[in-house]
Amino acid sequence: MNTTLVCSGGLDSVSLAHVLAGQGRLSRIVSFDYGQRHRKELDFAELCARRLEVRFHLVDLSGLGAALGGSALTDDLAVPDGHYAEETMRVTVVPNRNAIMLTVAFGIAAAQGDAAVAAAVHGGDHFIYPDCRPAFTDAFAAMQDAALDGYAQIALHVPFVHATKADIVTAGAKAGTPFAQTWSCYKGGAHHCGRCGTCVERREAFDLAGIADPTEYEDPDFWRKAVAAHAAGGA
Q1: Transmembrane residues, as ranges (predicted)?
Q2: 73 located within any domain
Q3: Which residues participate in the annotated binding site?
Q4: What is the Cα 121 distance to its own chain's centre?
């Protein structure tokens, strides 16, 4: 089953790329420039495609960021520090982002004759992002069945939708993912900041998985305080 993968260049999607490649299923990687605050992640997505020797499609939606304002990922807004599951992280929502990207990816897959589109949405995203939840992925798959009826049958492959970030680290390690060649940080500095929600989640996931984290963080210890504060707040 040839599969088109939507890949941001982050830990989750690059891990899924390696899992799919190990299964002989990965045919291409699709990434998006949607006017995000930095393009660093896209370099890691392209690097992944070259490493796995599959075609890389970079889709230019750069004008979209201005229209989808109000997010710290597309506007000049501060990225908050703290645990990923805190209410403050909602400022990182880009409305309908996954729906937009998946729609384009399904079009590419249909045109190229692939049988599936994969995305690395996972359980840890459910709190913040509605377009990462099972209700969305199920509905989106049904919508694409209707949209491509009579033209193509393409499955939506979301193997991590009920998984934790630690589960993804474990799966990625088994597939030989070079974690140091992935980018998660929302701030886009020289190194991962270690303080934004996605850095905290990344560092915590390696710890829970019991796998060494090769990432260089500007603040390598902040995650412990953020996790403790979140736990105390939820108690």
Answers
A1: none
A2: yes
A3: 7-17, 185, 193, 196, 199
A4: 6
How distant, in Å, are the alpha carbons of 17, 35, 103, 120 from that of 169? 13, 28, 27, 12
Over residues 16-68, the pLDDT tens digits come to 999 999 999 999 999 999 877 678 899 999 999 999 999 999 999 888 767 77
For the stretch 71-129, pLDDT in tens is 545 545 556 676 756 555 665 566 788 899 999 999 999 999 999 999 999 977 666 77
Contact residues for 81 (Cβ-Cβ < 8 A; gap 6+): 195, 196, 197, 222, 226
Residue 126 lies in a domain: yes
Residue numbers belonging to the annotated binding site for ATP: 7-17
- Dump strand ranges (E) for the chain: 3-6, 26-33, 55-60, 116-118, 155-157
pTM (predicted TM-score) = 0.92
Write out the binding residues for Zn(2+): 185, 193, 196, 199
* Length in residues, the chain: 235
**Which residue range is the domain that position 160 belongs to?**
3-179
What is the side-by-side order of every strand in the sheet holding 3-6? 55-60, 26-33, 3-6, 116-118, 155-157
Q: Is the residue at 105 inside a domain?
A: yes
Overall number of domains in the chain: 1
